[in-house]
Amino acid sequence: RKEVEQDPGPFNVPEGATVAFNCTYSNSASQSFFWYRQDCRKEPKLLMSVYSSGNEDGRFTAQLNRASQYISLLIRDSKLSDSATYLCVVRDSGGYQKVTFGTGTKLQVIP
Amino acid sequence: ETGVTQTPRHLVMGMTNKKSLKCEQHLGHNAMYWYKQSAKKPLELMFVYSLEERVENNSVPSRFSPECPNSSHLFLHLHTLQPEDSALYLCASSLWGGQSTDTQYFGPGTRLTVL
Fold it and tell me: b/e for B47-83, b at 16 or more Cβ within 10 A?
């Protein structure tokens, strides 16, 4: 089983739609979680951290389910500018606290 | 944004060449990282430096040699590379690598092609 697993997509959604991505992780001791966004041929940029209680930033909502070992990202009212690859990132506990990236889920918002 | 800069942005080299990638961070961070990103693969962590000491080396071939002269600069020295080493090489920095809230900020990357 991959350490961090994501559906690669692509998810093709119309403008204004709501879309959700899931990410599963294998290490139950993982400590912190993030969503990064990567535009084509650009570097990853932090979108949001994921907290145990869930958190929201405008149209974006992140949730963590420790029991089932997955995190989710919900995007409401999709914009064309949301088209990108969304990377799930998991940080382990202890020592150096290794960071593992998923392969990413590609989102294409269509006019 | 110029928090983390990388040079060159593009590099084409032959298998017998020696080249170096440079990364500089202007964020006052203490940890720096090299990642490799190949098509359809997740980012692969190569090296981590915290306070100029290497704390992680993910079994990277010796043809890749990192150097961290100070907390603001990180180099990746390349020699006798293989075509399969062609990828996007990303540098990142963070305030410190040991805290759960630590966030990594990435440079724009160097797109390397090995002929």
Answer: bbbbebeeebeeebeeebebebeebbebbbebeebee
Average pLDDT score over chain B: 91
Question: How close B79 comes to chain A (CA, Å)?
Answer: 24
In Å, how far is A6's CA from the nearest CA of chain B?
10
Residues in A closer than 8 angstroms to B100, CB to CB, are 31-32, 91, 93, 97
Q: Do A97 and B107 touch (CB under 8 A)?
A: no
Q: Residues with Cβ < 8 Å from A4, sequence gap 6 or more? A: A23, A24, A25, A26, A88, A89, A90, A100, A101, A102, B42
Please answer yes or no on whether A32 and B100 come within 8 Å at the CB atom.
yes
Mark yes or no for CB contact B102/A91 under 8 Å.
yes
pLDDT, tens digit, for every residue of B66-101? Answer: 999 999 999 999 999 999 999 999 999 998 756 667
> pLDDT at position B55, please?
79
